[in-house]
TrEMBL record:
Residues 25-329 form the NADP-dependent oxidoreductase domain. Gene3D superfamilies: NADP-dependent oxidoreductase domain. It comes from Candidula unifasciata. The keyword Transmembrane does not apply. Belongs to the aldo/keto reductase family. Aldo/keto reductase 2 subfamily. This is NADP-dependent oxidoreductase domain-containing protein. GO terms for molecular function: oxidoreductase activity. CDD domains: AKR_AKR9C1. Keywords: Oxidoreductase. Signal peptide: none annotated. The lineage of its organism: Eukaryota, Metazoa, Spiralia, Lophotrochozoa, Mollusca. The keyword Oxidoreductase applies. It comes from the Eukaryota. GO terms for cellular component: cytosol.
Amino acid sequence: MAAPIPDENKVNYQFLGRSGLKVANICLGCMTFGESSWGLPGQSDEDLSHQILNRYVEWGGNFLDTADVYGQGRSETIVGKWLETQPRDKFVIATKVRGNMGTQENVNNVGLSRRHITEGIDRSLQRLHTDFVDLYQAHQWDAGTPLEETLRTFDDLVRGGKVRYIGVSNFNGWQMERVVNTARTLGINPIISLQQQYSLASRESEFEAFQVCKSAGIGVLPWSPLKGGLLTGKVKRGVQPTEGRIGWAAQRGGRGNFTDKTFDIVEAAEAIAKSRGRTTAQVSLRWLLQRDVVSSVIIGATKLAQLDDNMAANGWSLTAEEMKQLDDVSAPEATYPYEGIQRQNGDRVNPALQDVYVRSIA
């Protein structure tokens, strides 16, 4: 039986962006639930997935993130079966739409068109066994659909009660700016969140996308906060992993990023972890939890022990000095024009201005 969790170590609840919705500061990502359609190893069957969900609730968690394409609906189905046994109003359920959920012969079964979105939400609701989704997210930009069509469709879903709030995922800076301005021009519901890859080893979105978030009051939901397991410290400098999910990613040129800079980051986090009696993963997650643009950090877990270790990033804080150490070692290279913008505006930050594009997040 798992050990009881002291109240002081449980999650905190924060507003999601500028909305009135409160979510746990650690969100449980459900991509690991069910057989992966991409061949990822270490996926959880239904029984283990439900155990992980139950344990997450013991930590005080209320925020679950999935997507229709995770296991081609299997993740949503597993979450939905569990949700049937729970008080629905206790949880914030997030899912996504854009990916191809059918045969390649159906050319309209992908993207962010009105047709695909309206079909996608109905099928997600069926799999999730609920009559509304709290947060519905565009999984990626769709260059084939007018943005106005996408945003009006999302707005219709909010007005119709099938969706409570809308967000986006994997958008770059100019795309975020267009979304914000288009919603304002149309006078429709704005997005409240950006789900983005963000970690000590992946900070490029700070240059533009997150500046839009800070200016517009959009909450950031980091995914892959441990860079596919690299920021746990399990992989050492000069060693190419071959086992597990990180080995799978390395073999495909995915989240590897096995550079000297990455291992400088890992070793800095390890040193702090050792001095604080924490794990390297907890330090890496804690750094994200203390970033002012972040509303909730999305973690994934394939084992109960892994979940407990990650959730223990709560209940303590990194010092200002420790945050600076991690900021400095992980700082992304500011190439043109970002370097010049930062340098020329270093002493030109006016806190009375709403526009914060002229300064870096860090």
